[in-house]
Amino acid sequence: MKRGRLKIIIGAVSGSGKTYHMLQEGVQLQQQGRDVVICAVSTLQRPETVRQAEHLERVPSIHWMKAGREYKDLDVEALISRNPEVVLVDGLAHRNRPEALRRTRLEDIKVLLDLGISVITTVNVYELAGVHEVVKQRTGIAVEATVAAGVLELADEVRLIDVSPETMLQRLEEGLLGDNPHPLLSRKGNLGVLRELSLRLVAEGVNESLEKHRDEEGAVGASGASERIVVAAQYHWNGSLHVRRGQQIARRLNAGLAVLAFVRRGKTLSQEQQTFKRSIQKLVQKIDGSFEEVPLPSLRKLPDILVRHAVELRASRIVMGQSRQGRWQQLLHGSLAEGVLRRLNGIDLFLMADRAVKEGERIIPARQRQEEQQDVFRRFSPQELERKTKAICKGSFKVYIGASPGAGKTYTMLREGRALMDKGADVVIGLLETHGRKETAAQAEGLPVIPRQVISYQGVLLEEMDTESIIHRNPEIVLVDELAHTNRPGSSRTKRYEDVLFLLENGISVIATVNVQHLESLNDAVEALTGIRVKETIPDSLLRLADEVELIDVTPQMLHQRMRSGNIYAMDKVEQALGSFFTTGNLIALRELALREIADDVDERLEAWDQSQTLRGPLRKREVIFIGIDIRSAAAERLIRRGFRLAYRLKAEWHVHYVSCGAPMNANLEKKLETLTALTARLGGNFASSLAEGRNAVADRLLTAADQAQTTQLIIGQSQKTAWRSLWRSSLIHRILRRARHMDVLIAAERR
Predict the structure, then answer these.
(1) Average pLDDT estimate for 513-531
(2) Sign for the pseudo-dihedral over CA of 298, 302, 308, 310
(3) Is residue 530 over pLDDT 90?
């Protein structure tokens, strides 16, 4: 209780804004009545950072020189004598002068913490021991000093300052990164690698917090914010294939990997099995997975033991093999798979096709890139010239994304708008929602505002963004809040993001905001995590369209503090919000979801720039995802979204197929079919339907369509319906498993 609090602000690179945000937090704490001082803080004479530091008392640091460069040590004794509540200090990885009492800044900070003085400090991701080795290998950047990566676990809070490579390169060009920035930091790919490492590192820490919170709440199984793969292996020639397949899935999904090897209890392994065991153990160690040998009393007990271990490991997916053995063995294997299915609750089952004999080792494939044969002497057609001209004239698009309301997206958007206006850019506010937040409203002062359009609907006057007036005004940049908003009836376009696309097509650049829960493909995950179904969504393709996407990361502690200070909602709504959407568990889960989503977006961009830079592994062959749905199932939309997310990460062509038994459809089913078709199209997939002659022919018709699409992975749902419905569903899955041994089959669980 007497120990001070430690907060670490982490960034991908020097110049990302860590010091500015640290000082900004210090000023806010001072305004709340806290006694705050700064020591050993380097502003590098950046104007915004200098202005923040002017409001805070400075305790002089100890200056010393090394190789012609000045360094600053904390004056710990002076700080102890001054005894503030909070100290702000830069450079957590700093090493002190040789004659200092303690060798590192971390040791100095621990002394302050033990005396009840709280500390907010900063660190770059490449200054963390262990991470710095990955950074050097991938970017060539070496650092002078590091701090143990475990220091993040000592912190009460860790906050990430996310900045896009484009923004960093702009700061470099403007000379805001100091006199001698590292030359390797001028490479866009290197900045992307550092950014992704930062996002994933913080996401892992948030995941640990989420699991700890779920343990305290008594929750079991996977949270839904991240993936964890369990591979059921055997000491056989194809055991390594299953492990590699699981590893490749895990890398593309940024998931943890655990390998379980099942052996008959009391049975001595043959020499061949011992060889396979050593091979699998070596492979698992190489790919940074976990390995456990599980004793098996009998084969009949395998489903129970496998599912129990998967639940304990918080698995989201089990990977098993499909064999090409004799009929009685196939029946045995089928019953094994169904035995696992009957016991699963909220865990997917992935059955891997055994194609090793025919095709060799199986890897995750992707669409091969065709090198365009360019004829430099060919003249563009008028249509081609028009398309290329439009692409050149199109406005740039930047999106600030947050994990929840109150993260600071709008404030940051307005701050950037003011900075751009100060540089001479023509910036206007197209649509702003301050929600009564004074700091946000203050940032908007001085920025021109395009008046909203007033629409009369059923005798009521409603307001929306006036897109046509913005186009007529023709600014360089327009600021637009809340992308997922649905426009009022009578508007020219249904959604605000459609207005934004219209502005971009007219050559106007847009900076916009959105929360992660509004992404279409995350709709089900957000409901599973929070219990709240978000009605307004944007297609995931909108983020891919953006030239820049930046995450505004805020810890749950900061959000709760802002909430209780009345900086998010009115005071009379605070307790209600804290007890519903803004619970600690919800905020942790949404934060992890946002961190992982932006990390995946960064990796996709890295892959587009340079495939050797991606952290998730290469893609070499073509993959086709085929999703079989039942429109009568409430899980149909969820299955389409999950299929899309998998296909997107595998860069796969994907199809959605509905097989009708010929029964007449009522108006509700027809509307449902239209909704599913529109959802598939919105996410970029292909929807089709076909007719089967009776229920018993559904599996054959579905597999025929899958084969025609050259499917490599079939996705079907596992129903949690009534007894007769489950019996029919089980029978359908059984038929599919018997006939689909030539392709991978993912049986997706209904997560409730």
Answers:
(1) 91
(2) positive
(3) no
Residues 6+ positions from 115 with CB-CB distance below 8 Å: 4, 80, 83
Specify the residue for token string 């057609």.
381
DSSP, collapsed to helix, strand or coil, labels residue 30 as helix
pLDDT at 323 over 60: no
Q: Within 10 Å of residue 22's Cβ, how many Cβ atoms?
A: 25
Kindly state the tokens that stand for 245. Answer: 């397949």
Q: What is the mean pLDDT of the chain?
A: 86
Cα-flanking dihedrals φ and ψ of residue 547, to 5°?
-75, -35
Please name the CATH architecture into which domain 382-552 falls.
3-Layer(aba) Sandwich (3.40)
Q: Note whether 296 and 262 are within 8 A (CB).
A: yes
Give pTM, 2 decimals: 0.84
d(CA 248, CA 255): 10
Phi, psi of 719 (to 5 degrees): -85, 150
**What CA–CA distances, in Å, run from 611 to 126, 189, 250, 323, 549?**
21, 10, 18, 34, 20
User: Kind of pairing, strands 744-748 and 348-352?
Assistant: antiparallel
Q: With respect to CATH, is domain 624-748 assigned 3.90.420.10?
A: no
pLDDT at 361: 43
**Percentage, residues of the chain above pLDDT 70:** 89
- pLDDT at residue 570, as a whole number: 77
Q: Apex CA 279: angle with CA 277 and CA 284, to 5°?
A: 95
The DSSP 8-state label assigned to residue 188 in this structure reads H
Going by C-alpha positions, the residue among 687, 346, 371 that lies closest to residue 528 is 346
3-state secondary structure of 348: strand
3 state DSSP class of 186: helix
617 or 91: which carries more pLDDT confidence? 91
Q: How confident is the model at residue 179, as a pLDDT?
A: 65
Please report, as a single letter, which amino acid is at residue 627. I
**What is the domain class of 6-161 according to CATH?**
alpha beta
Instruction: Measure the CA–CA gap between 403 and 400, rounded to whole angstroms.
Output: 11
Residue type at 526 in one-letter notation: V
Q: Are the CB atoms for 314 and 211 separated by under 8 Å?
A: yes
Q: Quick check: 685 and 628 in contact, CB under 8 A?
A: no
547-602 pLDDT per residue, tens: 999 999 999 999 998 888 888 877 778 888 888 888 999 999 999 999 999 998 88
- Do 382-552 and 228-359 fall under one CATH topology? yes
Q: Report the C-alpha gap between 361 and 348 in whole angstroms.
A: 23
Q: Write out the DSSP string of 118-156.
A: EEEEEEEGGGBTTHHHHHHHHH----S--B-TTHHHH-S
Give the model's confidence band at 733: pLDDT under 50 very low, under 70 low, under 90 confident, else very high: confident
What token pair was written down for 261? 């090897």
Phi then psi dihedrals of residue 107, to 5 deg: -65, -40
Of 228-232, 659-663, 742-746, the poorest mean pLDDT is in 659-663
Average pLDDT on 137-146 reads: 89
Residue 359 burial (C-beta neighbours within 10 Å; 0-12, 13-18, 19+): exposed
234 within 8 A of 268, measured Cβ to Cβ? no
Beta-carbon-side half-sphere exposure of residue 259 (alpha carbons within 13 Å): 27
- The CATH code belonging to domain 228-359 is 3.40.50.620
Rounded CA separation 29/288 (Å): 42
Is the pLDDT assigned to residue 37 strictly greater than 80?
yes
What is the maximal distance between C-alpha atoms in the chain?
87
Main-chain dihedrals φ then ψ at residue 79, nearest 5 degrees: -65, -40
Q: Is 676 within 8 Å of 629 (Cβ atoms)?
A: yes
Pick the more confident residue, 610 or 372.
610
Assigned token pair, 328: 């009685």
What are the structural domain ranges in the chain? 6-161, 228-359, 382-552, 624-748
DSSP letter assigned to residue 378: P
Reported as type and span, the H/E element at residue 746 is strand 744-748
